[in-house]
Amino acid sequence: MSMSNTVEAGSAGEVEPSVRRPSGLWRLSDLIRRAGFLPLLVIILLIAGFFVSNFFTLINVMNVLRQTSYLAIITIGEMLVFIVGGFDLSIGSLVALTSVVTALITASSLSGSEATLTIVGATAGVLVAGLMGLANGAAVAFFRVAPFIVTLATMGIAAGLALYFSGGTPVWGIPNFMVSVFGSGTVGGVPTVFIIMVIVSVVMYLLLNQTHLGRYFWAIGGNESAAILSGINTKKYTILAYVLCGLFAGFTGILLTARVGAGEPVLGTGLMLQAMAAAVMGGTKVGGGEGNIPGVVLGAFFITLVGNVMNLANIGSYTQMIVMGAILMFAIITDEIIRK
Questions:
Q1: DSSP letters along 52-90, please?
Q2: What pLDDT is stored for residue 340 in this prediction?
Q3: Are 207 and 214 in contact (CB under 8 A)?
Q4: Gap between the Cα atoms of 288 and 156, Å rounded
Q5: Distance CA 124, CA 335 (A)
Q6: How many whole angstroms separate alpha carbon 222 and alpha carbon 138?
Q7: Rounded to a whole number, what is the largest CA-CA distance in the chain?
Q8: How far apart are alpha carbons 294 and 37 in whole angstroms?
Q9: Is 174 helix (H, G, I), strand (E, B) or coil?
Q10: CA separation for the pair 206, 260 (Å, rounded)
Q11: Distances in whole angstroms, Cα of residue 131 to Cα of each of 56, 124, 158, 240, 250
């Protein structure tokens, strides 16, 4: 009898931990989780529409699509490294190195059509970036060197090689075919680079969600020890993630080179910071185990939109760097709030 009364009293007078009212921090994190950064995106679009007169012009919309495409492709590569628990600081310098290598080959006296020279030069440039990614991955996987140290070193190496090979000046003379098709080309009024980005995004989405490769990446980033016990060759797939990151950086370098019409030894400056911000804002977890392609593309669009509005408002590049850094900090803090 007394036991029954005790239970009833507890039911009436106490609140179980599982049904306690959520704290303010929990409610905030739940709101952020549900809404993401879409409200910020809408606010920026409204502000730009009202206060920037030429924001919704066709020329600017096409420019935003192109810039989003470049950033989305390189961010997908960064996301892969994030998923396996690492990160890559060298991607911006790899863009510059790829640009210079590609331009030197395509502008050389090699015989062949413009299309052939473009293919040869682009392949060489992307392979160089892939080899740098291989070096990053091998150092992280086999020698257990911290990703920060390794990729900081390769960032300096790639930047130095780009300046050395180019003499610190742009390399002119790339084929018109490369510029007209991949730089300024359109298909049905849509920029070619945007179509390429959509194709890359779909392929990588299927790769991550429908194949063993994607599941291995998730497993390594989620719990590397458990992945090893499951029989996954974690070293192999960690290296592969860094190689793919390098290849995507190289591919971005090819597309940007076609856009600017020359091999630029400083091309890609700022892309590393922007890619990290886009990845985190798109739902990629710092530390590994989580990430998604649609979120990354939306994150790239958001970062591009912010930069575009600041350019149209004549805000200086130094201020823009401060804003991008603040966005990255905001994204990381928000990510921590969500996950707690």
A1: -TTTTSHHHHHHHHHHHHHHHHHHHHHHHHHHTT---S-
A2: 65
A3: yes
A4: 25
A5: 38
A6: 20
A7: 99
A8: 13
A9: coil
A10: 32
A11: 41, 11, 11, 11, 10
| Token pair listed for 305 | 């939109």
Give Cα separations from 207 to 80, 126, 210, 217, 263 (angstroms): 11, 20, 6, 11, 32
Q: Are 71 and 92 contacting, i.e. CB atoms less than 8 angstroms apart?
A: no
Question: Residue 41, class by beta-carbon neighbours within 10 Å (0-12 exposed, 13-18 middle, 19+ buried)?
Answer: middle
pTM beyond 0.85: the answer is yes
Where does residue 62 rank: exposed (0-12), middle (13-18), buried (19+ CB within 10 A)? middle
- Separation of alpha carbons 212 and 203, rounded Å: 14
Question: For the CA atoms of 40, 45, 49, 50, what is the dihedral angle to 10 degrees?
Answer: -10
- Distance CA(217)–CA(67), nearest Å, equals 28
Residues 269, 321 contacting (CB under 8 angstroms): no
> Which contacts (CB < 8 Å, 24+ apart) does range 149-152 have?
151/87, 151/88, 151/89, 151/90, 152/89, 152/90
Nearest residue to 102 (alpha-carbon basis) of 71, 88, 78, 123: 123
CB atoms within 10 A of CB 202: 11
pLDDT in tens, the chain (340 residues): 444 444 444 444 444 444 444 444 445 445 445 445 677 788 888 888 888 888 999 999 999 999 999 999 999 999 999 999 999 999 999 999 999 999 999 998 777 899 999 999 999 999 999 999 999 999 999 999 999 999 999 999 999 999 999 999 999 999 999 999 999 999 999 999 999 999 999 999 999 999 999 999 999 999 999 999 999 999 999 999 999 999 999 999 999 999 999 999 999 988 999 999 999 988 898 889 889 999 999 999 999 999 999 999 889 988 998 998 898 888 888 777 776 6
Neighbours of 38 (CB within 10 A): 11
